[in-house]
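Moderator note: this is an archived Q&A kept for reference. The question asked for a predicted structure of one protein chain; the sequence and the answer are reproduced below.
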Amino acid sequence: VGVAKRARCEGPAPFPELQLNGAARELWGCGRGSSSQGTAMLTFGSGSMSDFLLNWVEHVRRLGDAAGPYLVGALDGPVADLCKDRSIASAVAPPADGGGGGGGGGVGEHTAQLRETSGYYRYRPGTFLAMGLVKQLFIRAVLREGYDVMVSDVDVAWLRPPWPLVRYSSVRSAPAENGAVEQEASLLALADVVLSVDQVQQYLDCDKHRWHVDSELNTGVLFFRASAGALAVLDEWRAAMSEAIRQRNPNHDQFWLNEVLKPRTFLDLKAAPAGVRRSWVAEALAARRNGSATRPLPPLPVESASFDASAPRLRAVYRPE
């Protein structure tokens, strides 16, 4: 009787900053986690949110290859056990990273704090801030592998891939649901970071009201491109959270991301002179992706030389000055 043998994985394991479970090593190891379009989906869960976590995983799995590989950040023991039992690809931050840990910034003690906290994190002082430091470590790890990553809270349900709203595919023959950017997102799909907001008033989705950029920024859904600009935002966010913890400031991770970004002056690249806009588009496309030198850059959008800045539905992009 013939017995099929599985080839052994050669080379370094992905995400050296994290501890992957068996399902994650299977998904991401031996190149099987490599997404042809260079995308990944990421969420985080604790035991009190297990039902939401299972729902998130089910919806992402239904999207299949169109979404790219996924990863769950297990914030405590019950979720780590749940992911192991259900063969859900997950990882934990190591209990200590020596203060550096490839960008972790010494999150080990905060990982331990989360694992020892029971109940809903929102009502536990300091836990949201500790979770923010763990989140940025995971995001940074995925970006360094060369993946653009969509990060969402565990209570989000994905009904279709989000990529046509935030990025141009690097695969010229990609299926329509992956490769065709929505026309209104022609500029947005070149941004380093895309954030959601706490406002739901649709009348603010326009040039007059600056597309919510002055609203409260929300970390419930955020997109990071594998770029130097995205890593710079993570660096400042991590520094702000670390300083808040040092000063025993109780504000949560979302508050500190707002503190990093909102005081800045933002240049509206949609309303900027055509020359400024074309220069930014060229720079955005030419930028080398961190850790992904072998992955082709997206094809030059045909609209890039002459975006119709007067189009009402073209979403604006803002560059911090």
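Archived answer notes: DSSP finds nine helices and nine strands in the chain.
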